[in-house]
């Protein structure tokens, strides 16, 4: 870049090095910094330069420069602001986008910096501040017109009846009261946005203490507020219809024209279509689009050439008498999405690494020329892998789609997916305001379209049956969001499929069926971040499928290998050990470290060949963008909302939040019913359009969220108040109650209750117990399966919550709704409660270590004896334990229970010798009472409760616990 650093104003040193706003005002043709306490206060006789610096997730900065021209500013000040803007861009390394802002016709991006609005004051640099301070002592009645559905344009108009019309919103600010007049043709959203201006005036001009009245166009004197309002105008009289309609400061669109600036001369370029190849890096160009004029500056142009390009754009506006058109100046390599969309087949935008280099060169040149210019700074990089914002102790139900029907999967099968199948899952978990529900579809890579459509239809019916209070998500294999894996915890994805649709497709197309076989050769890549988030994915059985950053499991029938990549972590190795318990639960694996493999290992993989060592990179979350949507006749139109907040989500509309790694479709409670039904289609259309031109995948995870049921992984992008999304009325009525009352919004409905599945009739009561335990890894140790997460969940229904198993980590503290507490914690729960609790536990599939086939206990089907039958409930006084029982030691309880069961006193065996699969089983024991031979501490370790508490349970509950613990 041929730039003389002497031409850069030193006032810009250090600018743009931190997130936020920086403002300069033109005073005596010089840029002077504006105090932060006056940001947002503009005077009609002045010109300003505004720099918005945004820290991105990748650690870099994005810069937007705006120069604002008041309606009474001088031509010299306006020209100085334009030139200084180019100098500021040069100081930033030539990477900023520059916008020309004219009072009354500002861009929505500019207005979003000063929400809810800017109201310029009369005056200028010489007398503006002093003049304003005098007027502030005595309140002046003022009338403002407000326009805009998403961003409010405010303009002061004469206080006269002739200023009013039926199309706009008007705000009359008097000494004691603020009136909002809603034109009959205005929308609810426009009225709601105008109320934000009312709140601003109330806080700014009245210290938050004044009355607020809403006046509807057409209401007569019968309404007290309307009568008072019209009385200020001399009485009520009908308003005339407008003879013309302003286009909100926008000129009508016209055909784009490309002009080249060469040595100060502007010449049009004749071309049928606009292509990137037309732009030369050594020249500047103007792209005239009617309402906007883009000044494109090549990276090899001089600073003086860039200033002339800005002047040429200004001259083009003056010649065409288009004062309301915007001028946007861009540097090569930092074009906006809107600009790139004007061209056919614009090449994919490369990462702008050169920006930091350019800025560094600017800093070095300035220092050599005597300026104290700070070195370029970078924002702190944001962690690339955000933690899943979802509770993993909830209730999971899974169905596999067969043709047009769905088949419920038992908890031992619900974490085993096939690439040729489609699945539906329903997950209920504790949220901040009660239970939340997520219903999703998962499409395997080789699943057929008919079953994908059937899964979508079935999931829609489930959402409808829950009155749209659940979140819907569509997930494709290989594109799962970060919230997906913690729900399943130990997911295994097999090749092939088991559904009727897949089998039919394979048969009709004469394709080889590669469905996984336990007795065949199979290779699994193990990945994940911890015990609550691990996956084993079957890959091609070939050496090229290996990767040094992962661990793998290879088996051929009864032969099992665990391959440890040299770049894998100890956590990866532990996860591989855990996944062996799912894939081959009863077999010992041979450990192989990368570089020391057996010949048999390579023989199973075919031919030894090269493989990768790079970690597989999933789609990373980027800075979110919010879009307001209109959808009609299959055509989707979107409009970006800049610097968005929760208040931008209107209950009558549909919005899309794009985070690149996933897309959320937010549906307001009062959105049109027909459009609401198209929410998923709207999301698919959005992915198809690729609004941000990021080559986004059509298989990106897609969420549909209904207002009032927003999960934490959505609300984390906002400063969220859940009471606002649960208020009564439309957008205008909600905000009016807030402005008037000045209190926290009143909720319109109670907290969400526990969701009951309409398909199973079972209550989805989540369990709060710990789902997994830490497990050390040693290559030489024999694998011993510990207490499974499913058993933890089951035992938690019976054990005393105050007596936690010390070998298990304490549960994570979460904000949960209060629970009823029994007066006697040692007393077992009532029969109905116990039945419901244990049923919910077994219906809530969580087991990761349960074998596929478990033989039932011989006692399970026998009639109960009198001693084993549950005793009838007694009152609290009778059930209170005595002092002797309270101080009894565990050892004494162990002896007492052993004698009662007919077991020889003091006869204790380790758990490994009591298992049916033990290599050294204990002899001369009663096989129907294995648990009685455990020591007190080991019994509590395995069952999560004392033997005394276990003995009080009904026999059928004891049997279920035994089965879960694999004692039989």
From TrEMBL:
InterPro entries: ADF-H/Gelsolin-like_dom_sf, Gelsolin-like_dom, Gelsolin-like_dom_sf, Villin/Gelsolin, Villin_headpiece, Villin_headpiece_dom_sf
HP domain ranges (all copies): 903-968
Keyword field: Actin capping, Actin-binding, Calcium, Cytoplasm, Cytoskeleton, Repeat
Gene3D superfamilies membership: Severin, Villin headpiece domain
Gene Ontology molecular function: any one: actin filament binding
One BP term from GO: actin filament organization
Residue stretches of biased makeup (Basic and acidic residues): 737-748
The keyword Metal-binding belongs to this UniProt entry's keyword annotation: no
One matching Pfam family: VHP
Compartments reported by the entry: Cytoplasm, Cytoskeleton
Pro residues bias: start-end ranges: 808-831
Family assignment from sequence similarity: Belongs to the villin/gelsolin family.
PANTHER family: VILLIN, VILLIN-3
Protein name according to UniProt: HP domain-containing protein
Source organism of this protein record: Urochloa decumbens
